[in-house]
Amino acid sequence: MSTATPSPLLDPEFLTKLEQLELISRKIFVGRMKGERRSKRRGSSVEFADHRNYSVGDDLRHIDWNVYGRLDKLFLKLFLEEEDLHFYTLVDTSLSMDFGEPTKLHYAKQVAAALSFIGLVNHDRIVVDSFSSVLEPGLSSVRGRSQMWRVVQYLDQLQAHGSSDLTAATRSFAIKHPGKGIVVVISDFMDKRGYEDALRYLLARDMDIYVVQVLSREEVEPELTGDLRLVDCEDDDEAEITVSAPLLKRYKETLDAYVGGFREWCTRRGISHIFTTNHAPFDKLILNYLRERGLVK
Predict the structure, then answer these.
(1) Which 3 state secondary structure label does DSSP give 296?
(2) Where residue 139 falls among pLDDT bands split at 50, 70, 90?
(3) Per residue in 40-93, pLDDT tens?
(4) CATH number of 85-292
(5) Rounded Cα–Cα distance for residues 132 and 128 (Å)
(6) I need a surface site. Which of 49, 103, 215, 226 has the fewest CB within 10 A?
(7) Residue 184 to residues 177, 212, 285: CA-CA distances in angstroms?
(8) Rounded Cα–Cα distance for residues 120 and 112 (Å)
(9) SS3 category, 129
(10) How far does the chain reach from its first CA to its final CA, in angstroms?
(11) Checking phi first, is residue 206 left (phi over 0); if not, alpha (psi -120 to 50) or beta?
(12) Do 212 and 185 touch, CB atoms closer than 8 A?
């Protein structure tokens, strides 16, 4: 576990770069109120989009009388509707995230803070939740750049604790947030219960789902030798091993197979899987990789 003082989540220079970005949904969601984001749906806002033929029962207030005067036919005016984009972040705060330098949890907080800032600058609805064995009380919906201090304050106070139960957390999350939107789950996904049932709760909500899998460099490239007794930080499960070159080779093959299988499972279901380590440049993850994956532009 790390004892070093963590660096600030975001620096001013990086914030300037984030101001040029916006969050993108691969789906169109109905907002609960008129917002700043253009929708492909036709509605009743102020910007004209198209005409269609009048049908019995249509609102007479939307008839284009100028067209009627020229063509002697009734047409309705259609408008671009504006709506909110709801953006949810779910951060794993279980004890396994308190590993590495910087810790996986600190890296996860940075990702959550950066994506929240992008959303707030563009007037999206932002919700940040966290979980370990259960879904913790989160930051309720905020909107507007002036609310960024609440996001940072919430993330700063998060501490690693308890064991991970992603399934219980996403079940509670789906009940708590019945609306649609983009959800980003940030975790190491080292849950003995697996990830399949957990992510199915989000799939059932028809959400636009991204998973960011964060591992430490020590987990990807372990530097261990000799006889060791390993203790699971979450459930105190113990294992005595003798580290050898063949064992390390088998470990890396098993890890690669797990990450690859996770990615394939997500891809088949329309979930975007992003893998990173705590030593990957954080700015490049946001500015380059997530842009390539279509979450930001």
Answers:
(1) strand
(2) very high
(3) 444 444 555 556 676 666 666 777 778 777 787 776 665 544 456 899 999 999
(4) 3.40.50.410
(5) 14
(6) 226
(7) 14, 7, 14
(8) 12
(9) strand
(10) 35
(11) left
(12) yes
CB 132 within 8 A of CB 92: yes
DSSP state of 85: P
* Token pair 């063509």: residue: 71
Mean pLDDT of 161-177: 94
251: enclosing H helix or E strand: helix 245-268
Ramachandran angles phi, psi of 253, nearest 5°: -65, -40
- Say if residues 21 and 81 touch (Cβ distance below 8 Å): no
Residue 277 identity (one-letter amino acid): T
Indicate the residue type of 4. A
Helix, strand, or coil here: 297? coil
Q: Is the pLDDT of residue 37 over 80?
A: no
Measure the CA–CA gap between 86 and 84, rounded to whole angstroms.
Answer: 6
Q: What is the residue whose two structure tokens read 């033929």? A: 53
Q: Which of 34, 40, 25, 22 is nearest to 180 (CA)?
A: 25
Where are the domains positioned within the chain? 37-83, 85-292
* Separation of alpha carbons 207 and 194, rounded Å: 20
Mean pLDDT of the chain: 83
Quick one: pLDDT at residue 256?
94
- Cα(9)–Cα(109) distance, rounded to whole angstroms? 7
